[in-house]
Amino acid sequence: MSKFVLLLGGGLHVTDRLRHQVAGARVLAADGGIAHAAALGLEPELWLGDFDSASAQLEAQYAGVPRMEFPAEKDMTDGELALNEAYRLGATEVILCGAFGGERTDHALLHLTMATRFAAEGRKLILSSGYEEAHPLVAGAYAFDFSDGTPFSIVAFSQLRGLFISGARWPLKNMELSFGSSLTVSNAVRGQLHVSLRSGEAILIAAPEVA
Fold first, then answer.
1. For the Thiamin pyrophosphokinase thiamin-binding domain, which residue ranges apply (predicted)?
2. What angle do CA 106, 141, 113 make, to 5 degrees?
């Protein structure tokens, strides 16, 4: 198994859980996301993007990191370019650090939907800000290692069918959930959380630091 960490430009709060998740991974940095490398104790093997959000200080600090430069006028975000490069290098598991927050809501939403698209192709991905963690959900069964009491929500990106939730304050059994429903928002872990889905695409967002 080949685990990759992608450093993106959103907010990041370093936790023991996140340090454990990224340990031993290969690291790619997307533009200004390289600012998270030092806090996580990581050494990127490649720095890519159009470099429109990397400060002069970062440019000097990471001058020795190999670069893959792209024009500002391109048809992909730096984050998607980094994800495609990780898969080209053989990634079987990807953790997107700094995937939320920051100044670009459109990029944060794109990271969530992009990860779900790749999950539908059989890829394993986690998105994290340290405070929050997101896991794409497509047809299949999932078990999570969140502590008892961890708040979580499931946000549907399509019609969901055959949704089961156990190990939660509000379990569900064989539910059909419409796109845009708030039924699965603001739940909490009770024991070990298990989720399964017969069809559809969604994202599970949890706050492990709150438990």
1. 140-203
2. 10
What dotted CATH number matches 137-210? 2.60.120.320
* Tens-place pLDDT, residues 134-188: 999 999 999 999 999 999 999 999 999 999 999 999 999 999 999 989 999 999 9
Full-model pTM: 0.91
b/e 92-129 (16+ beta carbons within 10 angstroms → b)? ebbbbbbbbbbeeeebbeebbebbbebbeeebbbbbbb
Task: Tell me the pLDDT tens digit for each residue of 82-118.
Answer: 999 999 999 999 999 998 876 678 878 888 988 999 9
Look at residues 8, 68, 63 and name the one whose alpha carbon lies nearest to residue 40: 8
